[in-house]
Amino acid sequence: MVPYADFNLLRLPNRDAAMEKIRDLTCLSDILPTGYHGAVTAGVGPGSTVYIAGAGPVGLAAAASARLLGAAVVIVGDVNPTRLAHAKAQGFEIVDLSRDTPLHEQITDLLGEPEVDCAVDAVGFEARGHGHSGSQHEAPATVLNSLMGVVRVAGKIGIPGLYVTEDPGAVDAAAKQGSLSIRFGLGWAKSHSFHTGQTPVMKYNRQLMQAIMWDRIKIADIVGVEVITLDDAPKGYGEFDAGVPKKFVIDPHNLFRAA
Ligand SMILES: NC(=O)c1ccc[n+]([C@@H]2O[C@H](COP(=O)([O-])OP(=O)(O)OC[C@H]3O[C@@H](n4cnc5c(N)ncnc54)[C@H](O)[C@@H]3O)[C@@H](O)[C@H]2O)c1
Q1: Which of 35, 71, 240, 255 has the most CB atoms lying inside 10 A of its own CB?
Q2: Three-state DSSP class for 115?
């Protein structure tokens, strides 16, 4: 009865084992493959140094994916102190972009050098500026420009963060049409590769399901999955909008409670 269900549903081999990890498995529908796609397209591999912009669910999923792919160190940046504290508690290094210390200096404090091998934009066009006053305002090109600044020569930048063709509420006339002030010459001069677009979820979801089933990734804890009823959905949306370090999973049929 569901169009294309035979095409895009994922079969879980063992129902009982799957129900034990159902909080984690819910993340396969979007954020985990998206974060993973960001890390893969940023070229993360064994020993990589990685910077992830954004400590929301997608950024944390990218950070967890970078760890799964063998990164030596994963740094997560945000302007939201609660989300940064959560990222730190999950074992990631953090940079606080609401501070006036520039990103490359905070990276130098952690790595001893001002650059990383790979970076992921898990923020998109709703990015805030950097620094104490900048972070109070939307500045849609901030993340892309800052990533070109800190990624090493010939490095890759994965961009799962959303950019749009129209943004009626944008800060200026150009941004209203999705035109941002990108310092593309810097990316050219550093021979960067950029990878954008919607995530091909089905390219990754079966393998990520196995990684969950075999305890290679604790994604529900890392993104802060909290299961709520349908009645609590408006409250969940409100809290998420306010920037809590959680990913709400709505359980309209009490499947989780039954499990
Ligand atoms: N490509 C895809 O298929 C796909 C799929 C799902 C989500 N997305 C996109 O991924 C992005 C992230 O999703 P989410 O659910 O984690 O969003 P979110 O809004 O919960 O998280 C974004 C985080 O970025 C932080 N932020 C703002 N400005 C910043 C800056 N300059 N530097 C660092 N962090 C900054 C915010 O404080 C917030 O915590 C969104 O743009 C979303 O639309 C893309």
Answers
A1: 35
A2: coil
The rounded mean pLDDT for the chain is 96
Task: Tell me the mean pLDDT in the region 162-184.
Answer: 93
Whether the predicted model's global pTM rises above the 0.85 cut: yes
Please give the Cα distance from 58 to 30 (Å, whole number). Answer: 9
What is the number of structural domains in the chain? 1
Closest ligand 1 atom to 128 CA: 28
User: Mutation test of ligand 1: which of 27, 28, 52, 78 has the most ligand atoms closer than 8 Å to its C-beta?
Assistant: 78
What integer is the mean pLDDT of 163-171? 92
Pocket of ligand 1 (CB under 6 A): 30, 34, 53-59, 77-80, 83, 97, 122-124, 127-128, 130, 142-143, 160-162, 198-199, 243
- Strand, helix or coil at 180? coil
Average pLDDT over residues 231-241: 97
What is the C-alpha to C-alpha distance for residues 143 and 95, in angstroms, rounded to an integer? 13
Residue 106 maps to a domain: yes
Judge whether 245 lies within some domain. no
